[in-house]
Amino acid sequence: NLRQQQKTPLAGKNYLVTAGGTKEALDPVRFIGNRSSGKMGYALAQALVEAGAQVTLISTVDLKAPWGVKVVTVQTAHEMEFALEQRFDQSDGLVMAAAVADFRAAQVATQKIKKNNGQGLELQLTQNPDLIAHFGAKKGHQKVIAFAAETNDLITHAQAKLKKKNADLLIANDVSKSDRGFGVDQNQVTLIEPGQPNVDLPLLSKIETARAIVKRIIQLTAREN
Ligand code: CTP
Ligand code: CA
Q: What biological process terms from GO does the record include (predicted)?
């Protein structure tokens, strides 16, 4: 009924959310990583559950999972890709909040890399696949939601990413200010949707930001009916 629909507008929808920074091994004890805490992804998972969706969180971090959320733990971009590949076709949407490392070691050393008489170390890196561009290109009915973390020219870079990733919605995040974004509990983002005016959300807690993003996802979903 209408009342139920208003309370749980995403009932029956299956959402995939990625969270945290991927960790790309250099050797058995070291990895290349980044500053993503995973908090935004977990907040989005919670907000999606509040809206009635079934949520699977593909996560690289060990945070407390929101109630009702299924968590799949991964480390690398490749593991994340595999976990998504197994679930994307049966899903109704993908929220790509993870900070996927752009590069990984061209070769992972099988033994711990040792120092060598004060000499430096040169690492050969190779580019990781762009996961969201892959799923954006192959999507059917799924809603694909991307993030963009930028330190400069936020909107210009974000618009380009929205196109490149064939996303339905992009959340642009200025990571140059230390009071928002990486690691902290609050965030200030701009929502960018093809053919719609950009919406600047105010500086909010991550859960409030997540609820505002989910509101927008609900609008996207409603527009197709
Ligand atoms: N992303 C992804 N796979 C990658 C890199 C990024 O799926 N190999 C996703 C991120 O999860 C995010 C979006 O793409 O949703 C944008 O990530 P970002 O790092 O801002 O952009 P990149 O496309 O990696 O471009 P660059 O870092 O060079 O600015
Ligand atoms: Ca990147």
A: coenzyme A biosynthetic process; pantothenate catabolic process
Ligand 1: nearest atom to the Cα of 170: 15
Q: What is the mean pLDDT of residues 87-106?
A: 98
Rounded CA-CA distance 11/214 in Å is 13
Which residues partner with 105 through β-bridges?
125
Which residues carry out catalysis? 34
Nearest 5 degrees, angle CA 73-CA 76-CA 81? 80
216: Cβ below 6 Å to ligand 1?
no
Ligand 1 within 6 A of CB of 144: no
